[in-house]
Design brief:
Blueprint lengths: L1 H8 L3 H60 L15 E3 L4 E3 L4 E3 L9 E10 L12 E7 L5 E4 L2 E3 L3 E5 L33 E5 L2 E2 L5 H8 L3 E6 L1 H15 L8 E3 L11 E6 L4 E7 L4 E8 L2 E11 L11 E4 L17 E3 L2 E2 L5 H19 L6 E5 L33 H12 L5 E4 L2 H5 L32 H21 L2
Parallel strand pairs: 11-14, 11-17, 16-18, 17-20, 20-21
Antiparallel strand pairs: 1-2, 2-7, 3-6, 4-5, 4-8, 6-10, 8-9, 12-13, 13-14, 15-16, 18-19
Helix pairs in contact: 4-8, 5-6
Length: 498
Amino acid sequence: MGMERQRSFSLKPSHFLVFSFIFTSSLLLLFFFKIHLDYSSQSSRSFTHYNASSLSSFQIETSQVRIFTISSKNFSVVQMQTPKLPETQVLKSAVFKFNQKNTNLSTGFNGSNSSVNRKSEINGSTSSGTRDGEVSQKKASSGTRDGEIKGEKECDIYTGKWVFDETYPLYSTASCPFIDDGFNCEANGRPDRDYMKWRWQPRGCSIPRFSAVNMLKLLRGKRLVFVGDSINRNQWESMLCLLRSSIPDPKRVFEARGRKITKEKGIYNFKFVDYGCSVEYYVTHFLVHESKARVGPKRVQTLRIDTIDRGSSRWKKADILVFNTAHWWTHTKTKAGVNYYQEGDQVHHHLDVLTAYRRALMTWASWVDRHAIPGKTQVFFRTSAPSHFSGGQWNAGGHCNGETQPLRNYTNGEFAEKLRLTEEVIKEMRTPVTVLNITDISGLRVDGHPSVYGRKPGVSPSSSVQDCSHWCLPGVPDTWNELLYFLLVSKRREVSTK
């Protein structure tokens, strides 16, 4: 038994050599593995240091790519979280400043990425009223979230281009019973549809797509009141159609007095029962009182530029007011200023239209300052939307029939002085007023007017007059309301972050 134990612990020379080889190889393997671990650890620390040091530049490059692709409208959605930093609204010029390339304006709004099948881009500038026929055709995916603006540190939402977007319009003529005959171009036989599908794209940023649900939430328990001429009625009808598109039961939206929208009436109050809000329109051509006075042996029509419109009592206590005027401030509609403008008991024998316009605006501004409730009333002044009569004025053979594409450029000469006067008056007001400057962007849209399609088919016109002043619906006024929506959302978030 002892011999067997001894033999079991003994090693033959051959076995010893094999054991030595295995042992030595294991030591070498461990040695090289340790060197590999040390090298890998050092490389990892170096790589981590590189990423940390270059993180900011990486974010900047990523943002730059996003801005480029947004402006070209040929991009895919990038899932990247960026911190929200405060933005500042310059109230009267609507140039928005941001400290971050991607700033969400409304937390809690649902994203809605829309697929775009075909797009054309028309750059907007203010040089001349000529058309450039070279229009780029693109396929893209559009997906600016509701309540979100993407763009550069400063964004002028009124400088940009019209982009053809197959996902537009935001409602159909069949779905909206609030379009009166004069604006319902499709029902009146207009054969083309492209005028409905142009979307405004600011340069360097993207405004949110209009969300009817979010707009109604913003309006809950409030009064949105449009005050002005028939162009403001154009915008008001657009807003009704945009909002109604989200109401499943049409009976939950109605006019308080049961009135049907026509050109003959100028007082409307539509109730959205589910949200306890109203969207109202009150007609006034000049914002001030149209009156009569005796001049010599006759009583003549006058304009009391020192007295607010008689219907102003209905505007009081509104939460959001959208005013406009200017279209009636022409020599033809004001009798060339001869024995027309009145202050007190005095009827001016002659007064320049711009002088009268400024004095009327000062009367309006005084009314707003007296009746606007600080912290509650939001006031907007929409600038003039240009007409597009070719070959003469509206009553002298002017026409716009056959226009199917936006202009490449537009020169704002007709309304530039009125805009300057408007801004001067607003700067002197105590009440903050936001100028909704749609003049230049609308000036590009020669294709957006009813022209000969402002009346039902088969109705013989009493004259050859074409409507190149108002706008087809769906159409350009929807964009004005998208801008209004953006400004309201921006203002709400600005207030909530203070």
